[in-house]
Each structure stands twice: as C-alpha cells, then as structure tokens.
Amino acid sequence: MTKAEKLTMLQQICGDSEADSAMLSTYLDLAADIVVHRAYPFLTSYVLAEVPSRYDTLQVQIANELYLHRGAEGEKDHTENGVKRTYENGYVSDSLLKKIVPFTRVIGTEIPETVVLYALTSFNTLPIGDSGEINNYTEVTCNDGSVKDVNEGYHYESSDVNVAKVADGVITAIATGNVTITVTGKKSGLTASLEIMVV
Question: What is the SS3 assignment for 24?
Fold first, then answer.
C-alpha cells in the first residue's frame, strides 16, 4: 500500500473532513516509526527500515488513534465540555501494539551500523549543451563488517538551473558558470554535493 493510499484510508476513517493532509501524513509517519521500532527491536539504525506490508492497515489504525488523542496525549480519560472519553492507554492501545510480532535475528547477522550517501561523476567540467550522469548510491556498513550498496531512490537539485539542470541523475549544462548539484536519499535523508563547472 502506498503512502497516498494510507493517507486516503486515514482520511476516511478519522471522520474529520476538514483534517489537514499534512498533519495526517505526520501521524502516518509517527505510526510508521512506532511499528518499525516494535517490529525490529534489535536494530541500531532505523534509517532504511520500512513498515512491513502486513502492517500497512495497522499503521493507519495507529495513526488514527494518535489523531483522535490530540489534546489528550498521555491521558487514559479526558473530559471536556461535559464529554468524557476513556482510552485503553495513554499512548497507543496495547491491543494494537500486540498485533506487531517482533522480528528477531541470529547473533552475528547484519544490522546497519553506518549509512553514507555517495554521489560521483567522471567529470568536474561539462561543456555547454552536454549531459553527464551522476553515479550515486547509499552504502550501508553492518555490524558484522559487511558493506552493501543500496539504491534508496534519490532527489536531485541544482543550485542554479540557469547554469545546469538535473533530472533523474542526469546533469545538463546550459550556460557558463559554477553549480552545486545536491543529491538527497529519499529514505535516509542524507545528502551529498557535487561541484560542476560549465564551460
């Protein structure tokens, strides 16, 4: 289930037609963090961990519960304007959390310890009208010493689109000058920069 589908489901079940999509999206992110930390209790780095697909609807349910607790966070019951609400828990209901089965591991298997984003090119200068490709990858070093390259999806940005533009990892030179190309990992949020001179 995509994040957009989860957001649509959350909008339907929360029953608030005026709920802000950005706020609901934040609750989905918080719920994802809760699911991942509960499902993978032994991870030391949660940067690239994702919600297992079997917990997609549970993530939406947790996000809905967080949304409904607004203003009463940490309380098991709340009375306002003569309306009393009672909650199973002051945070997320145990009945929801119990549905998440923790993944365990055999000691010595891989757990991400460090994550580094690399962006490389075979050129520092680019003639006007030419294009060049960025070779980027995310390197994950695990606690067992193994190293893996991960393609997490990337966002590209040019510091000056009048000098050079970048799309899908390809830089196109437009006018003479210097430009910084920034690559951001979509899951890790890490960035790497390249300095390119257009001649």
Answer: helix
**What is the side-by-side strand order in the sheet with 147-150?**
112-120, 135-142, 147-150
| pTM for the predicted model, two decimal places | 0.52
Retrieve residue 3's tokens. Answer: 């994040």
Q: Find, among 16, 13, 15, 103, the residue nearest to 59 by Cα.
A: 13
SS3 68: helix
* 41-80 pLDDT, tens digit each: 877 666 657 888 899 999 999 999 888 878 767 777 778 8
> In Å, how far are 91, 102, 111, 114, 117 from 71, measured between CA atoms?
12, 30, 37, 37, 39
- 30 domain-assigned: yes
Are 124 and 175 in the same domain? yes
pLDDT in the model for residue 46: 61
Q: Could you tell me if 55 and 96 are in contact, meaning their C-beta atoms sit under 8 angstroms apart?
A: no
